[in-house]
Amino acid sequence: MAYLVFSLSLLLIYVGLALALHIQFGLLGIPNFGVVGFWGLGMYAMGVFQVQLDLSFVDAIVLSVACVAAASWVIGRLVLRLDAQGILCATIAFSAIVALLIVTEKWMTMGVVGLGTIKYPVRIGGATEYLYFFFLIAVVAALQLFTLRLHKSTTGRLLLAIRDNEEVAASLGKDTYAVKTFWFVITCIAMGLLGALSAPLNQFLTPNMIVPSVTFAVWIALVLGGKEHSLGAVVGVFITFGIFDILIETYAPVTPELAVYVPNFKLFVYGLLLVGVLMFKPVGLLDPGLPPEAVIGKGIEGVRTGVALGRRLVASSVSTAKTTSGTTGKTGSSSSGPDESPAVTATAEPGASAPEADGISQAKDPTPEKPS
Amino acid sequence: MSFAVDSLFIGILQASPLILAAIGFTLIYYLNGFINFAYGEGITFGAYFASLFNVAFGLSFYISIVPAAILSGLLSVATYLFVFRPAMQRGIKPSELIILSVGLSFVLRYGLILLVGAENVYMDEPPIEFFNLIGVGATSLQLIALILVAAFAFNLYWIIYHTGFGEKVRGLADNPELARVCGINPHEVSVKVWFVAGAAAGLAGIFQGVFALVNPLMGWNLILITVMVSIIGGVGSVRGALIAAVVAGVLTAAITLLTKPLYAEVALLAAFILILWRRGARVV
């Protein structure tokens, strides 16, 4: 159960990163391939300020965000005049620099030994992780609401104009370079803030967290969900991270021998999904023309059927757990029968803020539940 | 003086896989105009093909180079025919082709890990002799790699700049419509170029693998520096990629001799961002 809360918190972090990337790439057309650099800088800055300098939670967050803001401003000034491929290479190089410096600057980051322990802001016994989880929900929900508003605002239209034809936008008297720099820095700050917030979640930071697969996981989720749709980030993360890291790792009856293959298999399927989406439906699952209200409506419908399905599954697993108690391996998680029903409602809860994800996975798999 | 000689020599010896990789990468970039991250998996697969013939079948290292290079050339052609060509025909933009190539490289890399596992593989090295050239030691293997790379590079240079086929390639890269009107079959030329590029990637992987070790992430570790070198070298010129790869190798060696190797990488990456910035929008 504690592990589920950790996974769900991580899922929220990914949703936030994908939302920031959605503004950068989907609205503004900046292909930032250094997501892990900005996120990791925020996370490690948080760790250094809290552990090495013993600052309070709020001070450390403010200073980490300031570090990320400074770094992203410098990078933005350097690269935003380049074309898409130039920006892509420069940002990927930036994230590689961050990862290397974390290894080399041992006096500050402890290098490969690892940096810890980063404390939660408040500790209230066993409720700490849950409180922090709800705090993350609030942060990411705020980011999502901001994105939805941005889509309808004049600023949003300006960003789209710059993405589609920068020359025309400039000829209409818009300072496109300044607008791009401003929004690049703002969205990178969001990534850095999410990094700083994931530091207490991870507790112990090591350099192997700062790997390019974080960047690609966020990219794959966004492209899959629909990079130009305001809800594409949520849908994409629920389909990729939600299915693989939460549903399969927590609930699927995988034997320990097979469990070794799951992470590699996951990345293999991510790759297949990405290739498939780009070849056959390049806009992603959500068409940019689809209004968010319609998506949410479909999602609520999906959640209702999902919850009904979940209840039946729980009921059947409880009845089988009673008959065959004492099974080994991963199936042991289903034998903890009564614990299961709050777990299912917990998965449905974040769905309430972003219910469409369940709707889609539901729509994809309309097979009726088998009677036990 | 001796520092300059040392770094020049070590740089050139270490750069031979990098030079090959940069040349092949540049060819594809030159012809189709997008950064192909899946090219890095060509490097990995080249090394695995070689270790298949070398370790599993017990062939000598020098003999196993040939089928391994051909197989990685075919792999590259397959990615072109089944993924990139249909995608380009559907009118997918270059920035999305890059994301597509990332997806494809995930499929290839993790497919390989699922097939053979993520453990390191060590190739059977051929018997090694040590030479002493102008005060710096080198192994016979390193020298043979260097000679092979030089032969490959000069051949390719000759083909691109002095033959009818090279003229077709340059024509297609500069102006595809005009080239088609002139009766150049873009399909045929592309397949050949992707084959040569894939073979170059495979050779790069084979030498990288025999110098150190073979693992599924080796291509990914090499692709970033390959992209950097190719872009700094002036994209679309085989000449530029050759020079840039040698310079990058020498620079890395020089910085490595002065500081820790990781700082050398940081310095190179920072220099790369600054060069991109100085050149402005006409990078690509």
Task: Give a quick rundown of the structure.
Chain A has 372 residues and is mostly helical. Chain A has helices at 2-27, 35-52, 57-79, 84-104, 106-109, 128-152, 154-164, 166-171, 176-202, 212-225, 232-251, 256-259, 262-280, 292-323, 332-335, 340-353, 356-364. Chain A folds into two domains: 2-211 and 227-234, no CATH class; 291-372.
| Main beta-sheet strand count, sense and barrel state of chain B | 2 strands, antiparallel
Straight-line distance between termini of chain A: 25 Å
From the helix content, strand content and strand pairing of chain B, which structural class follows? mainly alpha
Proportion of residues in extended strands of chain A: under 5%
Number of domains of chain B: 1
* Biggest chain pair interface: A-B, 41 and 47 residues
Structural class of chain A: mainly alpha
Q: Distance between the terminal alpha carbons of chain B, to the nearest Å? A: 37 Å
Q: Mean pLDDT score of chain A, rounded? A: 79
- Radius of gyration of chain B, whole Å: 19 Å
Q: What gyration radius of chain A follows from the Cα positions, in whole Å?
A: 21 Å
The total count of strands of chain B amounts to: 2
Report the count of strand segments of chain A. Answer: 0
How are strands sequenced across the largest beta sheet of chain B?
1-2
Run of helices and strands of chain B = HHHHEEHHHHHHH
Proportion of helical residues of chain A: over 70%
Query: Residue ranges of chain B: pLDDT <50 for 5 or more in a row?
Result: none
